[in-house]
Amino acid sequence: MLKFRMYLRLLKGAVTKRKSRMIISLLAIALGSAVISALVSVYFDMGVKMRKELRTYGANVVVAPSPKKDFISAKELESVMDTLPKDNLIGYAPYIYGVVRTGDSRLVAAGTDFTQVKKVSPYWHVEGQWPDSDTKSILVGIAAARQLGVGPGDSIIIMSEENKQWLKAEVTGVVETGGTEDNQIIMSLNIAQQLLDKKGKINIAYASVLGDIGTVERWTTNLDSDLRVEPVKKISQAEGKILERIRSLVYLVVIIILGSTLLCVTTTAMAMIMERRQEIALKKALGADNKSVIYEFLGESTVLGLLGGAAGWIIGYGLAQGIGLSVFNSLVSFRWQVIPAVLATAVLLSCIACLIPINKALAVDPAVTLKGE
Amino acid sequence: MFFRMLKKSFLQGKKNKLLAIVTIAFGATLASAVLSVSLDIGDKVNKELKSYGANLIVKPKMEALPLDMPGTNIDPLADQRYISEDELPNIKMIFWRHNILGFVPSLSTSVSIEEQDVKLMGTWFNKKMVIPTGETLRTGVKSIKTWWDVNGNWPGDNNEPEALIQQKLAQSLNIANGDKFTVTLTTEQGRKTSQLKVVGIVSTGSNEGSIFVPLNWLQEQLGKDNQVQQVEVSALTTPENALARKAAIDLESLSSDEFETWYCTAYVDSIAYQIEEVIPGVEAKQLRQVAQSEGKVLSKIQLLMALLTVVALLSSILGISNLMTASVLERSKEIGLYKALGASNLPVIYLFMAEALLIGLAGGIVGYGIGFGFAQIIGKSVFSSTIAFKPLVIPMVLMLSTGVGILGTISAMGTIVKLQPAEVLHGR
Predict the structure, then answer these.
(1) What pTM value is reported for the model?
(2) What is the CATH number of domain A60-231?
(3) Residue-level pLDDT at A174
(4) What is the ipTM of this complex?
(5) Domain residues of chain A, as ranges?
(6) CB contact, 8 Å: B304 with chain A?
(7) I want to staple B126 with a disulfide (CB 3.0 to 4.6 A). Which of B31, B142, B214, B235 is the partner?
């Protein structure tokens, strides 16, 4: 008991009496653990975040009518989409098409859900404003706008070619995608269905689903539905490939940074111990055996490791949030597993850093060292 | 005298100096590996992003709007205009020709097979092309649409009647690999039938229901020699910035300096502009789905790498400066002795600075070498290509290692100045 109290006193002395040196060691361990905890947090969060970023490439699932039919009903589409977990579905945009006339031009009118389009196809570039849903306001494709000579604020009369119904609509914006939308007039789904006399009918739907190609394929093949639900291979396959590359890139970089951080911290701690040869010699001269010196140093290292690791975790968590916010505009999620991992690494590190040089220090002859040679 | 002291210090504290050099070398290794990789990452990731397909589309300028509707068949040949195939090599002659990775022309028509309407597309599969500079280029669907999964062989690019047929269509028509089938084409001279041989079944993942044939064969059948409807171009581009956005709104609003900068930067719009310059009567447009997303993802990855580099630099600065401080503390006795012998603060500081400089230089050189090796390992294993040698990294790493060495000493300067010879020499 007495021995243990003495041990504690020695430990306390070591930490409080040699402040400047302790601070250096502590700083080394804390910054090292900060780097480690930040990188580990960012690395584990990166897959999910990058996957979300890659969804800017647009829909990765197409829903088409069953082979014998021309249309999908809104109900069928909804029942298919309901089979996906809410968190995995970014959005789905239904489309209805028909040929219309305006002035003496013939062109395609499309009806869709604008709030969904914004989620599914974030690459649409709208000059002007997006229309409010369910109003008689429309987007005009850039090529169509040039042909019709209209811009935001103008009104046009659109006549359905099939049933001769007509509609006066206000152009709120001009859309550019580089794809077929450039040649079309795009309006709200309801308005288009009324105009084209295709109530409740949908030609095709595009969905943006989170998940690797395997998950998406499993979902589409296991679906019990007449509809043809298929992954867009171009998008899903490329997504998987890119994600794999980025992940292994960051993995290697993180490993290198971790490795060298560990080495830096270890060498610093080693240098600190080397310096204390005299102290060790003094202890030995006073009758301490090797074991008790080692125990004392290990205890000291553990305290240092715990303090440094804890401080490091806090700094690292902040650092990770900084990276998350600036790269992905979102916070990096809290992972409790990182805390014990960082603390254990920090303690292990400071103990290893202490054990390597201490054997050498113990081999010294107290008389020679204390004399100062 | 100064040099003798310096020499002595290195010879006597060999082990300590070695430890310092090793630590700095670690830091420098890290810095140079991460810097080399992140400076070279833009092009590499950009190439990977090319697996999303072409980012530019070139079409003839047209009067009427095409009536394309996904999932429906409308004869695309109606009042169509064409691009001449002979003009295509010019795409490789623009200012940013090295950024053009490849392009695929296509010509489509609607044919009937056993009373069923099917889309027939003539295209290049893996065409060998000689460009005006004398170089040859292999380009086509095979290299641009990497997600195509072909079971069997790819057709040739001559006028052999070979066809790739999409999986779903092959099933519904009951055609297997190696089978021959007859298609009925509509040409300006009337209807005619031709025989095609299936050499491969392809899964393209969307719009399943087309047949792909060599471009030359289809041109010959339709009597449309040398004519293509559109060209998809895959180009390496720079993410958009304020200048590119300004140019996109109104090209005329740029001053001549701005225009020059815009023209000489590989923005997707400036590449499109240059393609329009070399091929008359066409419109080159960015496929926003690919082009815009590419820029977004690329700038995210670059930012991530930049931040990782900063973290790496921080971690190496930390290691180096800790070690320098520790070494000054350790040598307080020596400093005390210098001072006791009448040295003022400055010469002692100079001595330590010179030491730090030498250690930093040595560590930096060693570290750069090892770091470049690490960068290669990363390049090989992630992108299966080497990381380019960037001369910029050498001065950066050396400045960093010596700078940090000296910085680390500065934090210890205070200790040197405050040091009382009597106290340290007495051993307290």
Answers:
(1) 0.73
(2) 2.40.40.20
(3) 93
(4) 0.74
(5) 2-53+242-371, 60-231
(6) yes
(7) B142
